[in-house]
Structures are given as structure tokens and as C-alpha cells.
Amino acid sequence: MDNKKLIYIHPLPVRIWHWINAVGMVMLVVTGLQIRFADIVSLFTLEEAITLHNYIGFVVIGNYGLWVAFYFGTGKIKIYFPTPKTFLPNTIKQMKYYGVDIFKGDPNPHHMTPDNKFNSLQQQAYVGLMFIFMPLQMITGLLLWRVNDFEKYINMLGGIKIVDTIHVLLFFFFSIFIVVHSYLATLGHTPLAHFKAMFTGFEESH
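RE: above sequence
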């Protein structure tokens, strides 16, 4: 007997933000590859790649602003931060699950609810992603967009080479993140369950 129920986990604003961000990040990676490796990648002209990269970058920045407004405005931002008392034991359980138990078919120790959406490992990853790496990538991107206009701030950060290096290293990080995130999204009770939930808003609890 299939004992399952639907739980409304992803509100519409979150789903809209997620897919705009997902498409935007993929396009930024693609156009970034064109800009960085113009001799190898030739999906667009270099001028087209730069223009697309800039416009999409502003869309992603605006979308990030909507994410901040929604999560802070509704108080839901707390789902990104672990509870100190349970942080360590939950992290150990989750590491054991991903490292051993998942291959034995054991259930995930984390039970998703609207107020407890992420497991402890996800919380740690998203804190770094959403509060450090994304803002840093957006700031360095803006500085590189208008080098002459922002020369003062670029020099404060150590010069154009430092700013460019940070932006490129984060570009590689986000490229890897997209692949890893897509793989982890297949680890639901079916490979497409989490993808489906991000369209409908409902996760199936078994």
C-alpha cells in the first residue's frame, strides 16, 4: 500500500524565483564560457555574449532582491539556519545517510516540512551560497561591468586582477554547483519527484 500525502513546501514566489535563477545561472555560465574561452566556445559572437551576460546578470541580481524581500519579509529566512541544539547530531545523521544509508535503500532521516525545508547539510551549503558566494559574484560582476567607473572600488579590493580572479573562481564554483544540485535533486523517492515539486509546489511524503 502506498502511504503518501502531499505537503505544500514551495510557495509560488519561491518557485518563480527558483526557475528564473536556474535559467539565469545556466545562461551566465554559458555566456561566461564564451567570454572567457572565446577561442574554444563560439555559440555567440563575443559582443553578443558580453551583452547577454550583462543583461542576464541584472535579471539575476533583481531576482536575488526578490528572494531577499520574500524570505525576510515573511520571516521564512529562518529555514536557512540550523538549530544549534540539533545541528551536530543532524549533520552526522545526514552525512551517514548520503555516505552509506542511501545505497541500502534506507529512508532519509530528514523529514521535509514547510518550516523545516532543508536538512542540516543543505542549510550549511545554502548559507554559504546565498549569503556569501552569490553576493560576492554579483558585486564583482558589477565592478567588471564598468571598470572605469568603479576603478576606485576595484583598487580598494586589490585591483582588477583580484576582482577578476574572484569572479572567475566563483564562475567555476557555480558551474560545478549546477551539476551537483541537479544530481542531488534526483535523489527523491523517484528521480523526477523533486523537479515535479518545484513546478507544483507539493512534495510527496511517504
